[in-house]
């Protein structure tokens, strides 16, 4: 298992220039963000070792981690466990009420910030689903 998160607060503030995060929140967010990076990359970073990657790939991993921390700050950390932010997506008028719902797949996709995937795309650590077509 990874002993430390992929970034520290100094990297987040000085290099990534993310939105302001309190130090106590940052410590909680960065551990979870590093776990998300591991999950999205199928734990390849741990198997291979961070030091084995080029400076470019390490930089992209760090930026992806910072982007996930920022995503937690902006969307709320609840998104990590529920796949949706803590704000209810419902409307009630008289006897009529409507509650918006996302499918399970889109809820899981919402756990990861869009910029995280953009950064990790350049690392070749994220496998893309292939579609095969055959002619019968």
Can you put this structure into words, describing what you see?
The structure is a single chain. This protein is mostly helical and 136 residues long. It has one domain (9-121). Helices cover 52% and strands 6% of the residues. The protein has helices at 9-16, 23-40, 44-48, 55-75, 78-82, 104-109, 114-121; strands at residues 90-93, 96-99. The chain has a two-stranded antiparallel ribbon. Helix 2 crosses helix 4 (55-75). The protein is globular and about 50 Å long. 26% of the residues are buried. The model has no long low-confidence stretch (mean pLDDT 82).
Task: Sum up the structure in keywords.
single chain; mainly alpha; 52% helix; 7 helices; 136 residues; two-stranded antiparallel ribbon
- Strand order, main sheet: write it out: 1-2
Note the gap between the termini.
46 Å
Series of H and E elements:
HHHHHEEHH
Largest beta-sheet details: 2 strands, antiparallel
Low-confidence stretches: none
What is Rg? 18 Å
The tally of beta strands, per DSSP, is 2
Number of domains: 1
Mean pLDDT: 82
Alpha plus pi helix count: 7
Our estimate of the beta-strand percent is 5-15%
Helix content: 40-55%
Return the structural class.
mainly alpha
Molecular shape: globular
What would you say about this model in short?
The chain is mainly alpha-helical.
Topology:
Blueprint: H1 9-16, H2 23-40, H3 44-48, H4 55-75, H5 78-82, E1 90-93, E2 96-99, H6 104-109, H7 114-121
Antiparallel strand pairs: 1-2
